[in-house]
Amino acid sequence: MKKTTARVIVNTICRRDCAYCCNKSTAIMRRATPIYTVKPLNKFEVVCITGGEPMLLQHRLRVLIKGIKQLPTFPKIYIYMADYDDIRDVEEIAYMVDGFTWTVHAKATQDDLDKFRAVQSIAFTMPELSWRLKLHHDCPLVLPLMPRAWKFIKQRPFFTLDKCTIPGNEKLFIVQTNLEEELDV
Ligand code: SF4
After folding, report:
1. What is the pLDDT of residues 156-167, one digit of tens each?
2. Strand 5-9's sheet: what is its strand order?
3. N or C end of the chain, less CB within 10 A?
């Protein structure tokens, strides 16, 4: 199958410790190609930036996005997130990308609920972006959903660790620490 999507782990930092996190899978992580520049992303139609939690290392995330936007092929850029430090970061990044997937994980807390509300409010005011919501089937929260804010909402069982896969149309990359030095000149 043609690889149309680059899935890029921009960092591996995360405040959670989900039992089903694919980053714990050696079989998955050993398939991640290290990248030191954005050039290997040039041949893809879509770049999905994931982590860890991409929003927790803002400088690195913004350097990566800035680099991708300079590629001649103009791939679409989507961010996979479930946390942030400052909602203003979400607003600013929203002007740089094509969409977000927000995930409400198992063991979500009141803090997650508050952050979800804030993201949903931004999504509602920026319908030109693709906002996607994924809910873990064990999510304990009752969410105040505004369905019109979301392009789609999915609640389904997550893969267990031993079932983690990379879809056939995706190639997995992991950013190495000197990306900022390469691009932030
Ligand atoms: S939030 Fe995502 S990156 Fe963090 S532990 Fe859970 S699955 Fe892994």
Report:
1. 778 788 889 999
2. 33-35, 170-175, 5-9, 46-50, 76-81, 99-104, 130-136, 152-156
3. C
